[in-house]
Amino acid sequence: MTQSLKLKVEYGDFQTPIELAQKICQKLVKLGISPDVIIEPTCGVGNFIKASAQSFKSTNKIIGMEINPNYIRKIKNEYCLSNENRIQLKQEDFFQFDWFSLIRELEGNILVIGNFPWVTNSQQGVIAGINLPQKTNFQNHTALDAITGKSNFDISEWMLMQMIKCLQKRKSYLAMLCKTSVARKLLNYIHSQKFYLEYFATYKIDAKKYFGADVDACLLFCKFGSKYKNYFCDVFNDLEDNNCYRISYQDSILVKDIMTFEKLKDLYDSKSQKKWRSGIKHDCSSVMELRKVDDIYINGLGENVNIEETFIFPLIKGSDIAQGRIESTNRYVVVTQKFIGESTDHIKYLAPKTWNYLESHAKYLDARKSKIYQNNPRFSIFGVGNYTFSPWKIAICGLYKKLSFRLIRVINNKPTVFDDTVYFLAFEDEKVANQVFTLLTSTLVTDFYSSLIFWDEKRPIKTSILNSLNIEKALIKSELGV
Length: 482
Known about the structure:
single chain, 482 residues, alpha/beta, Rossmann fold, 2 domains, six-stranded mixed sheet
């Protein structure tokens, strides 16, 4: 990546076209928004500043903040700002600036408008970017969740949260471009904090047209005050659409299809006894994953691998699950533990060839960056337990946008295992596995899950959703034909 592209990604330097900025401002005018003060916290080259100045004639003050001094000069030169009392431009770093003090000092109703960076904190890590907030567990994940991927977040999500906190208990508006999934996370955040919220809506934006980005994006519009706590979201197909559907909370659950969920909510159980598990996480496929060619195992480094069968298990990946390639496989994985934290020393004696293989490739395994491997036995893996070795499983890939459950059996007399993109239920009894599989592929359960899944998310199928079904109740309901 070139230095210029790195900086572009790091600072979310993808400017909102003036055409889109104008359409958004015009939409806000149609909605009856007439702010006394407008703030653009990351104004870039100033297209929202220009559009706001043109659209909101009665606005007394427009404040533009930007970290790049060249853009500040560019705005002043191009727009020939003569009325300095109305338009104020400041060079500021969003993450260092005291937004609470600024907003507290302003009089009248406020509109915060713009487009925060869409980059995630993990992407910043990849490019060694520093344009992000101080690291805190603001999503309140457990320690394990926080270090196994769930702590990844969009920088814009954190920035929007700060704005929402600043705008609380006063007449104000938020109109920001963001990913649709980020907008829902913000509704979750507002709901969890019991913040004041008068109205929340999203208007779908063609991100491919305006930004060349293949993501689901929207204009997020919020209205705040000090009276209402309306935790729902009206979803519009575009800026011109006057018709919408509403997603809302039912018993503290954000529901996509309220009518369907209302019919089936008796099946919902946040403490269901049957738990979906995720597949094995090892973070070293070149060593831990093998292909079998003419009875010879070959690792990802192209080496022939001669080790005992003791710790080798057939592997089916998420893409195989989604495509229905489940009856056989030429993929295998070395499973070094039967449960998380188990000592691996016994491998030396039970399978000395396997231990020698692991030791000879220690430079790869010991270099795994994730913190989950620190202070754990050497050559540890995660996503392993008694359930891993059950003979029958029902599996689904979390990455695909379709409810495709598969019934998995043993392969070559060994339990089949999965990678960490797969979620599964484990069974010791074939009859029970078949019974539950029939249930999960029924219209009843498909409708239930579909009322909760937002398909535009990167990983739409989550264990929290899968685990919310009370299988026992669903079996009874299905048998009764209710």
